[in-house]
Amino acid sequence: MQLTGIHHVSALTASAKKNYTFYTEVLGMRLVKKSVNQDSPNMYHLFYADEIGSPGTDLTFFEMIGVGHTYEGNNSISLTSLRVQNDEALSYWVERFNQYEVKHQGIEKQFGRSVLFFQDPEGQRLMLVSDQENKGVASGIPWEKSPVPQRYGITGLGPVKLTVPEKEMSAKVLTTIMGFRKVGSYSAYQEGQPEVEVYQTGEGGTGAEVHLEIRVDLAKEKPGRGSVHHVAFRVSDKKELEEWHHRLKQERIPNSGVVDRYYFQSLYFREPNGILYELATDGPGFTTDESSEHLGESLALPPFLEKQRSEIESNLTPLITK
Fold it and tell me: Structure pTM?
């Protein structure tokens, strides 16, 4: 069994409409699925990805109207990164962020790569990472109809950073249970803090990394708008996911069991510092109920919610006002 990379990252937003505007019009990502939270169908679940919604390119948001501000801290997924093709693309994004008044820190170096830290309007902690030197997991293909030129477009998910107060148990789950390997470290941005450790799975590279930051000086994060709910890792198919389920049971790690999410099969568990992990299959994918040409154009519901469509639609605010 081998996790092959990051599958998706899911975060919180207080306004699906404003979220949609930023991620499609400013970041130029494609809305590949407009659906609802399957466990709470009165709220949107939006999926932004590459041209066809490839596994590993998918940043998703649950809308929680009225959710408060995030108080950043420990026991959190504290950074989500998005891949671009090369260093030239980052220069384009600096100009674009300046044009749209997006908060950013300018181009920096991290673990031998060029990166660009920025935030969305709700304070979501994000980073663009250049794939110029990447030799690992292949990226996706930016949406051809994006307002961002395709050669500069976002190609998928990059490393996620975990901020935790205690290293050993988190590192043990990553390596001993999940099969990640430590490949290096880099200096922390906070003076006096331990180096951030880098772990890779599968082919490695930007699409298959977890960065582990140890911060004993922080209180536990209070999540809200602009916080990350969970990170999912790629599993080839349901058979292998069931093997992962068996392994977690053997290790006596509490978990959800296999859950059918219609577009993929999932398995959820928390690591010792409270980070929520999901293992998700690559298929069947987002073209299960929509053609690739029309992804994200209509409200998509899994079959078990279809009978509630009228009620669900009446509770959702349209993303686009005609």
Answer: 0.97
